[in-house]
Amino acid sequence: MEIIYILISISFLLALSFLAAFIWSVKSGQQNDLVTPAMRILMEDSKPISEKINFKYESRNDTIRKV
Amino acid sequence: MKVETIQLEKFSYDNKIVRNFAVATIIWGIVGMLVGVIIATQLFEPAANITQYGSFGRIRPLHTNAVIFAFVGNAIFAGVYYSLQRLLKARIFSGFLSKFHFWGWQTIIVLAAITLPLGITTSKEYAELEWPIDLLITLVWVAFGINMFGTIVKRRERHLYVAIWFYIATFITVAVLHLVNSFELPISFFKSYMVYAGVQDALVQWWYGHNAVAFFLTTPYLGMMYYFLPKMANRPVYSYRLSILHFWALIFIYIWAGPHHLLYSTLPDWAQSLGVVFSIMLIAPSWGGMINGLLTLRGAWDQVRENTILKFMVVALTGYGLATFEGPMLSLKNINAIAHFTDWVVAHVHVGALAWNGFMTFAILYWLIPRMFNTSIFSEKLVKIHFWIGTVGIAFYAIPMYISGFTQGMMWKQFTPEGTLQYGNFLDTTLQLIPMHQMRALGGTLYLIGAIIMGYNLFKTMFQGHLTENEAVEAAPLQNLEEQEVKALHWHSWLERRPFQLLVASLIAILIGSLVELIPTFMVKSNVPTISSVQPYTPLELEGRDIYIREGCVSCHSQLVRPFRSETERYGEFSKSGEYVYDHPFLWGSKRTGPDLQREGGKYPHSWHFNHMMDPSSMSPGSIMPSYPWLFEQNLNTSKTQDKISAMKTLGVPYDAYQIKNAVKELNTQAREIQAKLAEEKIKISPDKEIIAVIAYLQRLGTDIKKDQ
Questions:
Q1: Chain A residues with CB inside 8 Å of B199's CB?
Q2: Predicted structure pTM score
């Protein structure tokens, strides 16, 4: 049953790589916001360019102004 | 006054590649389901086995490969390519790789459709394709990976939505599974032997097989569910937090559950128990996904009443919930003892396949295609008809198969008050199931009709609309110093700046390296027979075994006697792991449409096998086994016999130089012996026909262990 040691090592390495990915995702802030991502995907629909609204970000008074 | 302007970048989404995969999904789906209906018919009407290229054993893998890798595979790629671009606000990384991915995948499917009916197969379930195709699969999968990770790197949205995590896990795990389960030693362009043997091969196979279900049929579909369901219902997923939680739990637990396919086998008990424990645990993350999906529709059930696409999704999620409840239950040893090898397992996988994969695919196609073609669906009414005919089809498929599985499992175990088997003739149990198999074929046909209606409806939709090949969009780039620098840097520098990604990448590299080094060494050393009387196959038996593999006998006949009184009474001594050390690949099977063959050797005279293979109903009236007339016409090809024996020696089977040199001579001698024995029973046949090799193999099966007694 030598293969079982190989399979367990592979599965373990795979789990370890998942763990690494998990730690990365937490450290890099991927999991900080667990509410808005669900909303965001509903607002990404592309419209024809002409209908698009361009936003300009003004650093002085933090207002968003329609151009 | 200083005004900072964020320049919106103009780019476009590639819809053409999504359309291509979607069209392939429709076409291969119909083909795969059609083959399914044909093999379902063969199980009650043996006359439906037309020529050797259409016999059950050869086209059953065609059905499974077509629906899993062609239908579901193309659907995954369509769904991933559509959602990935939008979730990341970036065009797919490389148009060339997309094309290579698409055409490469279709080539693999066509090659499968050619080689499997020809009997070119490794016989390992869901990994039947021979080594050159395995190499092509690896290339195409890598292209898919580069395309996906490339898109992730150049994304304009920092947060990786949960669907993308599911896609990443899918890519990595399927890559590892495919590599480990494809360790084959080629003999010729069309033939190879597995490096693993017997119980070791069985474990690798079901580690692969189970995770193929997990990471090809489940995780990518969960990812797509998290993108498309909120879009379809136009409401956010019930709990994003739950989606993250159940994702990580699911992928950590799934990889350990494989051994539940080998309960009561010769696999060590502790490994079986490990598989059971993790399988039971799986119910939590699986139901996490199902509940999250269904609750997304909370307060929107009025929409479900109106919207057929959402109806498809509800059935898909319900099917997922049923199948993932049943899976852990089937992993319990006491339930597995009844269900294993019966139609129960077939019912289980089809609830998952028809409802979860099939219905979600249909929903996504109905949602995607009108959107990409700037039109509405050709006929809303046909969508409704499809939904109802498909749902009834699933019921007609699953319910008879549950009854059939339970019936057969119980009949196998039934003893009379005197203590003998109530149904000592296996055929009694087979005949009992025929009405159930007829209903199943009807259910499958209804489901297929639904898919054909969908094909018509969607192609009409495509013709009435116009595809936006490149959908123009604008989005702000990632505003981050680091990210801006990265653009100018080499990809490797990007990796180096991310220690964890680097760790993952190096792990994968180490993994592949050590596998290539370790596996062959380990496997050759491990072929030390633990039962002294177990000997390698003779050249003729080995050739016979290869015909057994070619004809797909393993689809219906197991070679594993479980340690139950009901099985030892029926078949003989239960199986020992030491008996399988020379079996490259293992042939335990997963379904007993016919009886187990592990102790077949010596049970009947040569003439019985001869007549039975020519016309099974002559020996077993009412048998549903197809006849194999071509084995009596075709000459055994011995041009590769020597290479085969020599390859087996490389894999650790103790043949000596003399045996390799005289392989064909030895083969001919044994063939003439069998011919002489048949002649004694008044059967005339030339010794160079394939049937002689098959008889040699069948008569050898499971006999070595008896020599000890």
A1: 1
A2: 0.91
